[in-house]
Amino acid sequence: MTATIKKYSLLLLLVSVFGCSDKEHKPKEQANNTTKKDTSAFSNSETNTNPYSAVDVSPMDMSYYPADYPKLKMSKAVNTPPLARITYSRPHLQGRHLFHDLLKYGEPWRLGANESTELQLYKDVAIQDKKVKAGRYVLYCIPQANTWTIVLNSNIDSWGLIPDSTKDLFRFTIPVKHNNQHLEYFTMIFEKTDEGAEILMAWDDVEARLPINF
């Protein structure tokens, strides 16, 4: 009788020990599974730079005249509309040479990348004694070694690889100069002059300016 009780007590003890051990391990296993899932999700978000839209290597930029017009407006330094604005994408050299690897003389260039570069005039202006009405224009050029032909075109909201010359409105020839600085990113800004402003276009060691009279 005593031996039977001892065997029964030992059996209960073993069941109790293994039962407790099992309960202790199950929560840890679940916690580990949860941790693995969270880590996996975090890892996926890290490896996807932007799952919604690819990041463009030629970022879009905007230049105003007067310069920094939106900041001036918000600080109430001006209370009148801007005079002009350019919207363009900024390609960069990436070790290449402008007229050896990227552009060719005599072939139209969209003055940027991606969508056509656009000039918006908020008032009528004069460019090389030609009257240009306020509005939006595609802006592109035909480069030569010593001059660029700057073209205003009406085919707005377009991709800039093949400009539609049938919609050209104005053409202006301007000189270019080569200097010692080498700009990695193509740049377009307005610079103030006595008569109005110049659109400065610069890339690599090339610089060109289109004067606008306001």
What is the strand arrangement across the widest sheet?
1-2-3-6-7-8-9
Q: How would you sum up the major sheet?
A: 7 strands, antiparallel
Helical stretch count? 3
| H and E order | HEHEHEEEEEEE
Q: How much of the sequence is in beta strands?
A: 35-45%
Shape: globular
Helix content: 25-40%
Q: Would you identify the regions where 5 or more consecutive residues have pLDDT less than 50?
A: 13-47
Per DSSP E runs of 2 or more residues, the count of β-strands stands at: 9
The tally of domains stands at: 2
Distance between the termini: 116 Å
What is the arithmetic mean of pLDDT? Answer: 83
Oligomer: single chain
How does this model look, in words?
The longest helix has 46 residues. With 214 residues, this protein is of the alpha+beta class. The chain is globular and about 45 Å long. About 16% of the residues have low confidence. The strands form two sheets. Strands 1-2-3-6-7-8-9 form a seven-stranded antiparallel β-sheet, with no helix packed on it. The chain has a two-stranded antiparallel ribbon with strand order 4-5. It has two domains: 55 residues; 154 residues, no CATH class.
